[in-house]
């Protein structure tokens, strides 16, 4: 639980930092980009064409940096969640095409439609983004192809498990995103949720994907956990709380879904 607290404090600090930083950085980039454009025009008028290739490079780099700041901004904005009662299985089904295009043709995407899933109270956009982030990570972990399996199921979390997971005991829908990729050693698992932690080559990863997934599940009253070993693939589990029942069970003793914890 202490690690969880440290994690949320880190998230908070990084959120504030990146908000201000991204904004100022973006203003600077606008200036750089404008100047480069003017320079390019002047060079075009004179006879110093050889310089323009350098300017091309600078332009491209500037554009990439701008794209990064947009991502930072999206990350740091006090995301106002718009939670709605959501059938997670349906959402995954609707996202299938986009997910499969995201992971590419070398990854086999398997999703199981689980009937009778409890509704969860989540921000649908954020859940979609979280699943896309996990899809991108899985793709990157399977450079030679593999299988990405997404399953969802109902789970009653008991007191003991709740303590371990640092969530309330009760009813959750668990989404498992499992790949057959390179997996992670324990020290990577331990840092994977840290903002800006990445093992990917420069320019390939931001280190923000999993910290966004973490932020989203915690804000939703749930949890995210990683099971992975080198060479054994990775399994990311998202716990999302079931929509709280607002009315008492109408017919006690009918044995259906009345088993909500006190
Ligand atoms: P990024 O993907 O930009 O590096 P993330 O926060 O999404 O940032 O992930 C952090 C790190 O966790 C990755 O750089 C990688 O080392 C590790 N990781 C995440 N997902 C997986 C996965 N499915 N398989 C193996 N390693 C992973």
UniProtKB/TrEMBL annotation:
Domain Histidine kinase: 20-244
Protein name as it appears in the record: histidine kinase
Organism: Stutzerimonas xanthomarina
Residue span relative to the full protein: 368 to 629 of 762
């Amino acid at each position: 639980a202490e690690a969880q607290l440290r994690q949320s404090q880190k998230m908070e600090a990084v959120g504030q930092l990146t908000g201000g930083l991204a904004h100022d950085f973006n203003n600077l980039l606008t200036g750089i980009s404008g100047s480069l454009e003017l320079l390019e025009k002047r060079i075009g008028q004179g006879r110093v064409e050889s310089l323009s290739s350098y300017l091309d490079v600078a332009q491209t780099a500037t554009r990439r940096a701008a794209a990064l700041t947009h991502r930072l901004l999206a990350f740091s904005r006090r995301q106002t969640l718009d939670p709605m009662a959501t059938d997670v299985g349906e959402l995954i089904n609707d996202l299938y095409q986009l997910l499969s295009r995201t992971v590419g043709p070398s990854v086999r995407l398997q999703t199981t439609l689980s009937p009778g899933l409890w509704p969860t109270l989540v921000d649908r956009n954020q859940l979609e983004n979280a699943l896309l982030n996990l899809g991108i990570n899985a793709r990157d972990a399977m450079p030679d192809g593999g299988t990405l399996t997404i399953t969802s199921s109902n789970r009653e979390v008991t007191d003991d498990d709740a303590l371990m997971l640092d969530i309330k005991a009760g009813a959750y829908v668990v989404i498992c995103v499992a790949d057959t990729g390179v997996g992670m050693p324990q020290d990577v698992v331990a840092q994977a949720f840290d903002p800006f932690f990445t093992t990917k080559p420069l320019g390939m990863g931001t280190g923000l994907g999993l910290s966004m997934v973490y932020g989203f599940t915690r804000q939703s009253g749930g949890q995210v956990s990683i099971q992975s070993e080198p060479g054994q693939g990775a399994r990311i589990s998202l716990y999302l709380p079931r929509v709280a029942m607002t009315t008492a069970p109408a017919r006690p003793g009918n044995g259906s879904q009345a088993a909500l914890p006190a």
